[in-house]
Design a protein that fits this description.
The protein has 13 helices and 17 strands. With 395 residues, the protein is α/β, with parallel strands linked by helices. Strands 1, 2, 8, 9, 10, 11 and 17 form a 7-stranded mixed β-sheet that branches. A 7-stranded mixed β-sheet has the order 6-5-13-14-15-12-16, sandwiched between helices. A 3-stranded antiparallel β-sheet has the order 3-7-4.
Length: 395
């Protein structure tokens, strides 16, 4: 046991054991084994209780290769369901579980993964724990999840999921990524279902909402009702996960980065690195892990410069997605938001792949907007510029 008030030294300290820092840890151990890497996590398990999914087309073949040991489930395609449109798509879909992430990172770091350790202060070259211990390092990387900021205007994708065991086989062979045939509550609502085995499912009730509050009891009841409606009898709820993901509507990314001290390196959702419309962060986190591991010098200043440059560049490059989000969250009546996604899923499969990967072409952007949109034109025109929602917030 390390004595209180002692100082431990490392080359890199990762504050927070979420997805972004876990991937950085794995890449540093693989590509820079000479570096001493220490990860500090408040809870007793790395990754918490989460399932991270992505489409195979979201990342490069190189990243897919090193992510492969983390993949627990892989499906050849997925389904979507809307009141007036159902479709099967053949894009492979993959899942990483927090259990697998914990196993992989714990094996890679050994006793350099400090669990159950609460952090009280983070500076560019030192981390202080609640018991008085200090860790000095050339690079300190803060990945403790999103931080609140007046510089960004956000909507929210919030969800609660239950891993359930059924009394009888469910009959699904592929995920239902969106089932929006359910009643529309608290914004755009859909149910997300992953078949884990013949009798096991992950069922998530998801809302694209204006506020981040999560009514867990209501969502649990909604999952039970959905399962009953599908003819599934739940024998046991084996686990539960929940989350609130940011959906970007507008913001000043330069001001966002000025809010933190110089040389503090923030990563993941904390660095505004996520797909603006889905809130998913795995592809950006994987790319950033590769970039950090490839830096000639790994210090807080160099890591901060690398992350900040990428965060700002992606924020500007993805402004079109924020426009679409403003149409969804501001111009559209909440219980009609599902029609936007219903229309989107009539587009070509390659365009849908590029949308999720945040790599739309100029023609794609035009194609998404062409036709009769399910949003009143008069309302849409109000929200063409980001200032429209910034002004709404400050009014």
């Amino acid at each position: 046991m390390v004595a209180a008030s002692s100082t431990t030294r490392a080359d890199v300290v990762l504050v927070g054991g979420g997805l972004a820092n876990s991937l950085i840890a794995l890449r540093l151990r693989a590509l820079r084994p000479d570096l001493s890497v220490l990860l500090i996590e408040r809870d007793n398990r790395i990754g918490g209780e989460h399932t991270w999914c992505h489409f195979e087309t979201d990342v490069s073949p190189g990243i897919s290769g090193w992510l492969r040991p983390l993949i627990v489930h892989r499906w050849s395609g997925y389904d979507v369901r809307f009141p007036a449109h159902c479709r099967s798509l053949e894009t492979p879909y993959l899942a990483i579980t927090s259990e697998r992430l914990h196993q992989m990172v714990s094996t890679a770091l050994g006793d350099r993964a400090w669990l159950g350790a609460s952090v009280t202060d983070v500076s560019p070259h030192q981390v202080t724990l609640s018991d008085g211990r200090r860790i000095a390092a050339a690079a300190v990387i803060d990945g403790r999840g999103p931080r609140r900021s007046r510089s960004l205007v956000l909507g929210w994708q919030k969800f609660l999921g239950q891993g359930v065991r059924l009394e009888r086989p469910h009959g699904l062979t592929r995920p239902i990524v969106m089932d929006a045939t359910v009643s529309q509550l608290d914004g755009y609502r859909f149910v997300y279902v992953l078949p884990l085995s013949e009798t096991r499912l992950l069922i998530e009730d998801t809302r694209y909402s204006d506020g981040p509050d999560l009514d867990r009891a209501s969502l649990r009841a909604a999952i039970t009702a959905y399962a009953e409606g599908q003819g599934w009898k739940i024998a046991e709820v084996e686990r539960e996960e929940h989350g609130v993901l940011p959906i970007a509507l507008a913001g000043d990314i330069d001001a966002y980065w000025r809010e933190i001290r110089a040389q503090i390196a923030e990563v993941g959702l904390r660095a505004a690195l996520f797909q603006p419309t889905t809130g998913y962060s795995l592809p950006d986190a994987a790319r950033m892990a590769d970039q950090i591991a490839a830096l000639p010098r790994i210090t807080s200043a160099h890591v901060r410069a690398c992350i900040e440059e990428q965060s700002k560049a992606l924020w500007r490059r993805r402004r079109y997605f924020r426009l679409l989000n403003r149409m969804l969250f501001r111009a559209c009546v909440p219980d009609q938001r599902y029609k936007v996604l219903e229309r989107f899923y009539r587009l070509s499969a390659p365009l849908i792949q590029r949308f999720y990967a945040a790599r739309l072409t100029p023609f794609d952007r035009m194609r998404v907007l062409v036709g009769k949109p399910p949003v009143p034109i008069s309302e849409a025109l109000k929200y063409l510029g980001e200032a429209s929602v910034i002004d709404d917030r400050t009014a």
